[in-house]
Specification:
386 residues; 12 helices; Butyryl-Coa Dehydrogenase, subunit A, domain 1; 3 domains
Length: 386
């Protein structure tokens, strides 16, 4: 298997070594303060891990999506939370795949060097939800700039990002032949925009995950910041979603292994009624089943990654990997919490924190029903449901 190659083992050991310097105490403190793990993200950046997918010609490592997924897996498997920084892995792909040569030369080397962070993507809107074609944020071309008005929600890591990828309509929905047309993607200079029409309101949520509502009131964006052709932004967006699905699946796999390791260790050491609780089948079997399901999800993750790296169609596999991995990590989380009993709710064991963190992936960045709809219609050929 790909993940058992010497190359991947070396990669795992290197990432694991860095992550292990950030203990559970570090993450509990960040969680208690609802803070951002700045020191951790800086360490990953300086080590070059967040530039893994940037080609060597732009200062990155030029690694495959399979290797990048191993990085994400190991971060979560260490007890950390890759959600604080994973956006940079796939957001910069929009520039890499569809940006001009000038945009690539301007941004990618600085992102790879850690001089700029491109952690944030503004797509979702309060009234549109997962029906992205119904977004109402609008960008009007005026000479050498676009003027943008609208609102976004669940825009993550914006307060710790220098650049944001923005999806906005440039042609009204009732003026396009297909509803997926007429949307465009822009690069937004975050610090510059904060004083020129863009305001941010943090959304407190169940997880310590920095996410926001964004309001744009006559925000001006240079026309040169348009990525690709006007009106093709939704198509560009879709090309990056498979990478996102694969990386999120890897994070869930990492979470799953963390929960299983934690549960099996505790079950072997915790003695009640003069015997380790793991000797009881009621404790042992659920942990074993959770492990089986994480292993299965792991295989689908690498199948999707191998297809992606071979430039072959992988939409179904990427979506299935995300669905299976999110389900498996949530199952493992529940088993781990149940195994620990009351101690699972104690912050010092880290189970309750990771429990909250992994639950997010059963909802985002794509819901299970959207994945099942895709499989039902695109793979199995059943009628459209919406």
């Amino acid at each position: 298997m790909l993940d058992h190659s010497h190359e991947h083992l070396d990669l795992r050991h290197a990432v694991r070594s860095l992550c292990n310097t950030f203990t559970g105490e570090y993450w509990r403190k960040i969680d208690d303060e609802r803070g951002y793990p700045e020191e951790f993200v800086r360490a990953l950046t300086e080590a070059g891990w967040l530039a893994a997918l940037i080609p060597e010609q732009y200062g990155g490592s030029g690694l495959s999506i399979a290797e990048a997924s191993v990085i994400m897996e190991e971060i979560n498997r260490s007890g950390a939370n890759a959600g604080s920084c994973h956006g940079q892995m796939y957001n910069m792909g929009t520039i890499l795949r569809h940006g001009s040569d000038e945009q690539k030369k301007k941004y990618l080397p600085r992102i790879a060097a850690g001089e700029l962070r491109m952690q944030s993507m503004a797509v979702t809107e309060p009234t549109a939800g997962t029906d992205t074609t119904k977004i109402s944020t609008f960008a009007v071309r005026k000479g050498d700039r676009y003027v943008v008005n609208g609102q976004k929600v669940w825009t993550s890591r914006l307060q710790h990002s220098d650049l944001m990828v923005l999806l906005a309509r440039t042609t009204p929905l009732d003026k396009v032949a297909k509803k997926s047309e007429g949307m465009s993607i822009f690069i937004v200079d975050v610090p510059n925009s904060m004083s020129k029409g863009m305001t941010v309101r943090p959304i407190r949520n169940m997880v310590n995950h920095e996410t926001n509502e964004v309001f744009m009131d006559n925000l001006e964006i240079p026309a040169e910041n348009l990525i690709g052709e006007e009106g093709k932004g939704f198509k560009y967006l879709l090309t990056g979603l498979n990478a996102e699905r694969i990386l999120i699946a890897a994070e869930c796999v990492g979470d799953g292994y963390w929960f299983i390791d934690k549960a099996s260790t505790y079950a072997s050491e915790r003695v009640v009624f003069d015997r380790p609780i793991g000797q009881n089948q009621g404790i042992q079997f659920p942990i074993a089943r959770a492990y089986v399901n994480v292993e299965a999800a792991n295989l689908m993750r690498f199948k999707a990654a191998s297809l992606f790296d071979a430039a072959k169609p992988c939409g179904a596999e990427a979506n299935m990997a995300k669905l299976l991995a999110a389900d498996a990590s949530w199952e493992a989380a529940n088993v781990c919490l149940q195994t620990h009993g009351g101690f699972g709710f104690a912050a010092e064991y880290d189970v309750e924190r990771k429990f909250r963190e992994t639950r997010l992936h059963s909802v985002a960045p794509v819901s299970p029903n959207m994945i099942l709809s895709f499989i039902g219609q695109k793979v199995l050929g059943m009628p459209r449901t919406f």
